[in-house]
Amino acid sequence: MKDKNLHIIQKVIANIGRFLLAASFIFSGFVKAVDPLGFQYKIQDYLTAFGMASWFPSFFPLLGGIVLSAIEFFVGISLFFGTRRTLASSLALMLMIVMTPLTFYLALFDPVSDCGCFGDAWVLTNWETFGKNVILLLAAIEAFRYRTMLTRFISVKMEWLVSLYTLFFVFTLSFYCLDRLPVLDFRPYKIGKNIQEGMTMPEGAKPNVYESIFILEKNGEKKEFTLDNYPDSTWTFVDTRTILKEKGYEPAIHDFSMMDLNTGDDITQDVLTDMGYTFLLVAHRIEEADDSNIDLINEIYDYSVEHGYKFYCLTSSPEEQIELWKDKTGAEYPFCQMDDITLKTMVRSNPGLMLIKNGTILNKWSDEDIPDEYVLTDKLENLPLGQQKMVSDAHTVGYVFLWFIIPLLLVLGVDVLVVRRRERKFARRKLQEEALKAAEAQKLTDSAQELADNAQKPTDNAPMSVDNSNEMKP
């Protein structure tokens, strides 16, 4: 009885840990899969922080991010349905063994502001992330230790199909969002948001306090200085960095600033308060931007000029790269410089296009979805394109969920109606065969016993013996 109760307790603990891991890995893998470029930027931050950016080829952060998100999603689904129990629990344990000490290091030394484990959907501090990972590590240990006790919801014969479809789904989702735009936007520049409102500080709120650190060199020796102890001109400037000295309220948008390269003026407020339409071509690095659809971009600029709309290209690239872009593409639109991280946050495409009006984001397009002349047939005021695109995260999540769950329900239906019925039929047939064999064996046993019994008693037709001892002799 004691062993039975212990077995039940172990099974309950293993399955609780299994579902906790499943929820975490499914959510983590999904939010990374819908924003592959965002996870790429986070991996680049990691490599830069650890001085490893030059160790890997340029495609590694993107490809590695897509593969890692697929692994996390696969592990989560496998743990949830109880398929590939050894593989899934082993991968979960390996990931947590790697991530737990890594996040402890991040919490201690803060080389990266947040780990990015849940993308932009749920931003945790480094200490919060470490605490979460400690719990998940304990759950992974229990799930791996008692993996044979994890309850199955899919038969062994059908688990390969669930695994294959899971990987197909998550890779398809990642590449679709990479080619277009994320189907879910967790950033402050999502459609329907007003940029100026996102920059507003609540009344009485205390802002963050930053401090600039200057790295200077003299006689081969490098030292760090602040404005309070900045040295004389005998020191040579090397680098500068900004650190957060005191945490305060930080608005969702805190670094949106448009600097017109033609005039050198800050035109941010002029653009955000303009009651007309403004197209913003976002190319965070103009030298890396895709120019395959440049004709469509030039046509939209011509369309803007014709109808009196504003059009700006926002980039963080230096002026010499902008001039090369103009020579290569024939661009005539004005350029503004902006922070590189801000541009990456605005549109996950290089280039990407954004339409705003009075500071409100009406629509966004990737390089592959830029409107063409067949859509721009009239003024924006008279076109659906000029209206704010209706976006519902709940509907999007439901739509994506249906794309994933309906095929899985079909698999479950086949599993229940066909595979398991066949298994039950096979089991019944085996029982019948075993019963038939047992009956035949019993019949043979009875026959043998009957023959043995008959051999031990005389029969009516057996010849009688004659005693001739009393016969007279001649």
From TrEMBL:
Residues 11-141 form the Methylamine utilisation protein MauE domain. Keywords: Membrane, Transmembrane, Transmembrane helix. GO terms for biological process: methylamine metabolic process. It is a multi-pass membrane protein. It is found in: Membrane. The keyword Membrane applies. The keyword Transmembrane helix applies. It comes from the Bacteria. GO terms for cellular component: membrane. Residues 447-474 are annotated as: Disordered. The chain crosses the membrane at residues 12-31, 59-81, 88-109, 129-146, 158-176, 397-419. NCBIfam families: BT_3928_fam. This is DoxX family protein. Its main location: membrane. InterPro entries: Methylamine_util_MauE. It comes from Bacteroides faecium. The lineage of its organism: Bacteria, Pseudomonadati, Bacteroidota, Bacteroidia, Bacteroidales.
